Amino acid sequence: MSRVIAHLSRRYSFSASHRLHVDALSEEENRAIFGKCNNPFGHGHGYGVQVTLSGPVDPATGMVANLADLDRFARQEVVERFDHKNLNTLEAFRDRVTTTENLCLEIWSIFSQFIESVDHPQLKLERVHVEETGNNSFDYFGESGPGRQD
Ligand code: NI
After folding, report:
1. Is 27 a residue of the active site?
2. How far is the CA of 19 from the centre of ligand 1 (A)?
3. Which of 27, 37, 101, 104 does the annotation list as catalytic?
4. Residue 149 — pLDDT band, cuts 50, 70, 90?
5. How far apart are the C-alpha atoms of 48 and 29, rounded to whole Å?
6. Is residue 99 part of a domain?
7. Number of structural domains in the chain
8. For residues 142 and 46, what is the distance between their CA atoms, to the nearest angstrom?
9. Residue 65, domain CATH
10. Is 116 assigned a catalytic role?
11. pLDDT digits (tens, 9 = 90+) for 77-118
12. Could you tell me the pTM of the whole model?
């Protein structure tokens, strides 16, 4: 097996709306915690998602993973799932606030399925990066990644 490991990153984008709100809290508490993001009518973002995979460079193809396969998966499972949706109405957020932290975790679990679907034991999901605005972005590196607290 090749020991030359490279990282591959690919960017996708979609537009979606959300409202930050915890049902168990009062209107006043929600407003105090989430401010204008608790506006009952919601608001939209143009989200950017960057996914990073790592793995050996296949000596035959010269690639870490097939980008066409990754794109097809991302289009179906990420972009179509979230684009022009109200995140608050999706099953994935039934019990979770639609923060971009939680969106980042959800997208990580979706791309984990891509890794499982590829017959390639050394291919790893390294990072999911989600941009909410030009000033906000969120990263998840998996359970064993940096920032983990025991
Ligand atoms: Ni927002």
Report:
1. no
2. 7
3. 37
4. low
5. 30
6. yes
7. 1
8. 24
9. 3.30.479.10
10. no
11. 999 999 999 999 999 999 999 999 999 999 999 999 999 999
12. 0.93
